[in-house]
Amino acid sequence: MDEINLGRITLTRYFMLYIEEYELAAMADFHLGYEDVMASQGLFLPRIQRDYIMKLLDKIYEKYDPKMFIVDGDLKHEFSKNMPQEWKEIEEVVDYLSDKSQLIVIRGNHDNFLKSILKRRGIELLDDFTIGDYHFLHGHKYCELPENKVTIIGHEHPSVTLRDDIFATVKFPCFLYSPNLIVLPAASIYASGTDVTKSDYISPILQKNRFDFNIFGIDEKMGIFPLGKLSSILQER
In 3D, which of 10, 11, 5 has the Cα closest to residue 217? Predict the structure, then answer.
């Protein structure tokens, strides 16, 4: 299944949330430049993430052709500076998106030096963004959720691990959905994610608020699929 429609919001297999009334696509946690950062620490990974992200974006524009695109934090990976690979890949992705859509970039906790890259393209780095009934922020800082809005965050890298009768396991990135708060999956191919069935949340927003999320898993072959309520999965374990 390519998508699941939840009224005004559509969740997709492309790690992207779509709001049709605004022709708006939102993704989070690209972590571009990850391989370069790991190489500087002596861990050499195949440089596949940029191509992986671009293929996702190609499919999104082919199917949805959004007029607005929101990167909901952590476009880059390195905290302390702009790595060469990171700079190059961010410029490529930003040029691709801004040529096709109005591009909105939200500041994430990894985006300390992103402003200098975006400034060359005349793009502002925002702490949050509101359009209609929807409020976007990354989710790495605590804030009171606005009333009468749907808040959409990243940062958590949510995933869920499923086990069969012989205890074989498989881990799926996932959307967490509730009427007031939606958590986006990480678009990064290297972001294995926080298993929301057994780990403490990393977002202070999730730590201090409790939501009975519906979980929607993503798999390369199966697409996006419902996994039920988080509370029900926790009761089974």
Answer: 11
DSSP letters for 163-190: E-TT--EEEEEEEEE-SSEEEPPB--TT
Domain assignment of residue 13, given as a range: 3-158+178-191
- The pLDDT, as a whole number, for residue 153 is 98
Any idea what the CATH number is for the domain that residue 91 is in? Answer: 3.60.21
| Strand-pair category, 223-229 with 214-219 | antiparallel
**What's the farthest any 2 CA atoms get from each other in the chain?**
55
pLDDT, one tens digit per residue, over 145-164 is 998 999 999 999 999 987 66
User: Does residue 227 belong to any structural domain of this protein?
Assistant: no
Closest CA to 16 of 77, 60, 62, 61: 60
**Sorting pLDDT into bands at 50, 70 and 90, what band is 84?**
confident
Q: Tell me, yes or no, whether 47 lies in a domain.
A: yes
**pLDDT exceeds cutoff 60 at 219:** yes
